[in-house]
Write a structure and sequence with these properties.
By secondary structure, this protein is mainly alpha-helical. It is about 50% helix and about 5% strand. It has 2 domains: about 70 residues, Winged helix-like DNA-binding domain superfamily/Winged helix DNA-binding domain (Arc Repressor Mutant, subunit A, Orthogonal Bundle); about 55 residues, no CATH class. A two-stranded antiparallel sheet has the order 1-2.
């Protein structure tokens, strides 16, 4: 299950992807929050995180705001999930980037819990690794289809 923070991040990124596609340029945080239907105070922290990760650029001044740096089709959803949520694996011993041996495990190769959840997780990974931000922006120019507005 994704957190509310992740939903806010995705909503903001969809708005910024659509602004990029329509040539709107940089959007102020108030405009992003309005279009995405997210609280501005939470969005500020999220946008700073995304900027620090190199996904967004910010422009100061009267015509300033945030812009998506990359094409939406080059922004993997899996990377966004890892950035905002952290490890995706249901068990620490299944994580590629955040691997840790389970404290109570004697033998990973014989662990039935690891085997079953591993099969489910790898199937999930195949799908999520194939998706990009562009897959969330199916109707350029309007975020209403995603947010139910």
């Amino acid at each position: 299950m994704i957190t509310q923070k992740m939903k806010y991040a995705l909503k903001a990124l969809i708005v910024l992807a659509e602004a990029r596609a329509t040539g709107d340029g940089a959007l102020r945080i108030e405009e992003i929050a309005r279009r995405a239907g997210t609280p501005k105070r939470f969005l500020e922290h999220i946008l700073l995180e995304l900027r620090a990760a190199g996904l967004l650029t910010s422009i100061r001044g009267r015509a300033g705001g945030y812009r998506l740096v990359q094409e939406p089709s080059t922004v993997p959803l899996a990377e966004l999930l890892r950035l905002i949520e952290g490890p995706m694996a249901p068990l620490p011993c299944l994580s590629r980037r955040f691997y840790a041996r389970c404290e109570d495990c004697r033998d990973e190769t014989a662990c039935p819990i690891r085997r079953v959840f591993g099969e489910v997780f790898w199937a999930y990974l195949v799908l999520i690794e194939s998706l990009t931000l562009a897959d969330l922006s199916t109707e350029p120019g309007t975020a209403a289809h995603v947010f139910g507005a």
